Amino acid sequence: MSTPTAKGEDRDIVITRSDRKNASSSGVKGLRTKSIHPPIEMHWDLPTTQKGKKKASLSIKSLLSYPLMKFGRSKSLEMVLEGTHDPNDEQIVEAFREMLSREGLLPPKHNDYHTLLRFLRMNDFDMTISKDMFLNYLKWRKEFRVDMIHKEFKFTEYTEVKKCYPHGYHGVDKCGRPVYIERIGMIDINKLWQITTQERLIKHHVSEQEKTLRVRYPACSLAAKRHIASTTSILDVNGVGMSNFSKPARYIFMEIQKIDSSYYPETLNKLFIINAGSGFKMLWKAVKAFLSERTVAKIQVLGSNYLSVLLEAIDPSNLPTFLGGNCTCSEYGGCLMSDQGPWKNSELLEMIQTTEEMDGACEHNNVVSEGSLMSKTVEMQNKDDLSMSLALEETTRARTSLSCRLALQKIDWLEASLGDIKNKIKTLEDALQDTKMALKELAQHIEQ
User: Fold this and answer.
1) How far apart are CA 216 and CA 117, in angstroms?
2) Rounded (5°) CA angle 264-220-236
3) What pLDDT shows up at residue 438?
4) pLDDT tens digits for 244-292?
5) DSSP assignment of 229-286
6) C-beta of residue 84 within 8 angstroms of C-beta of residue 45
7) Average confidence score pLDDT of the chain
8) Which has more pLDDT, 359 or 80?
9) In terms of Cα–Cα distance, which of 342, 68, 413, 32 is closest to 178?
10) By C-alpha distance, which of 79, 7, 74, 88 is closest to 47?
11) What does the pLDDT read at residue 333?
12) Residue 301 DSSP label
């Protein structure tokens, strides 16, 4: 089934769904060719009552200064962060979840709808291949200590690395996805290895990927009021030649490519390669051989006349001046030093943190409930132990229930406060408009 897309969005990607229901349920390989699926957020838009209304572009300044819209009760917040599910996708995800759970291969922490969907989409909904890939992912996370990176790893050379390896997140595209930019033609590889090591650079990349999943996507979802689950990237290859692909550079490229494709699948929405000259085009033929067909379909190679294509996807206010946009981030020492975007908004971060605390409390409650069932079987042999256990269980439930209620109250308070701020800003805007009209009349009077 083909799905029409808006002008300038994903126009180079062939969208097909084929007979994935039959193939995914059987898990048999070779029944059909690979499909290039729609963007991963295709079915995750928050329902809207206003049709045909032109969507306003979001600048970094407006995202960081505009108070968060009032979501109403926590259910609306959940709809934005979780998104609505495509029924066909949901059916296959549930079958995949049941298969993993039945074999004891699905840890509660990773029993996440969107994570499972990513692995299924990457493998064209083949559950057998997706299972192997998912298990390798869990093994890698354990060996690499991914869950401990934010506690154990500090990239103290961050600023110095950025100077000889310009890269970073900056703003959002017109759909609200985070924009990632690299200027690989400006990498000073010799200086880079004097500042850091290959191992630390790779660990830094993993920590950034984790931050994107844990903070950037949720913050962008709240700001755009729709589920965001992928990134739009720009790779500036101006000045790239064979010298940029030394043996250490090739190792880093291959290792990062392996990590992204194997452990963070389906997080790329679109990659624009810009300023591609004849030298890079020769390299691109070799590089393309290491990329999957699905990834290549999301890449658009452009020469020096790239600006009009970028502006179809990204507002000028979210593009640095060195790419033809309007932003300089001079107060941060440059756009790629700023890491600017909705994920820097303290109000959004507060709501994300509150939601995580609430989820953690509710997850703890589930664990306590499962444990209590097991303990009751043993405690039936001793009435005194049973009474003590029930009292302890009741206390634990009361504490957990209180944590959930406090989290919900905190969200309600935030929503009410943000609503008041929005009303105050509206009042100030009206007063400003009246002042402008008065000044205009005064100017006309002076001219007369």
Assistant:
1) 19
2) 65
3) 67
4) 677 888 888 889 989 999 999 999 999 999 999 887 877 788 878 877 7
5) --EEEEEE-TT--GGG--HHHHHHHHHHHHHHHHHSTT-EEEEEEES--HHHHHHHHH
6) yes
7) 77
8) 80
9) 342
10) 79
11) 87
12) E
Q: How confident is the model at residue 35 (pLDDT cuts 50, 70, 90)?
A: low
DSSP state of 196: -
Helix (H), strand (E) at residue 428: helix 383-447
Identify which of 341, 391, 401, 331 has the alpha carbon closest to the alpha carbon of residue 366.
Answer: 401
CB atoms within 10 A of CB 133: 19
**pTM of this structure:** 0.70
* Model confidence at 53: pLDDT above 60: no
What's residue 253's pLDDT? 85
Under 8 Å CB-to-CB from 445, ≥6 apart: which residues?
none
For 30, 170, 234, 262, the CA distances from 180, given in Å and listed in that order, are: 35, 6, 6, 19
Cβ-contact 360, 352 below 8 angstroms: no
Tens of pLDDT along 96-110?
999 999 999 999 989
Rounded Cα–Cα distance for residues 241 and 267 (Å): 28
Residues 6+ apart with CB under 8 A from 233: 179, 180, 181, 182, 268, 270, 271, 272
Q: Is the pLDDT of residue 341 over 80?
A: yes
Question: DSSP alpha helices (H): ranges in 146-240?
Answer: 149-152, 158-164, 189-195, 198-211, 217-224
The total of other beta-carbon atoms located within 10 Å of residue 30's CB is 7
Q: Token pair of 352, please?
A: 């994300």
Q: Are 303 and 276 in contact (CB under 8 A)?
A: yes
**C-alpha to C-alpha distance for 283 and 246, rounded to whole angstroms:** 13
Query: Residue 29: is its pLDDT beyond 80?
Result: no
Contact 259, 205 (CB under 8 A): yes
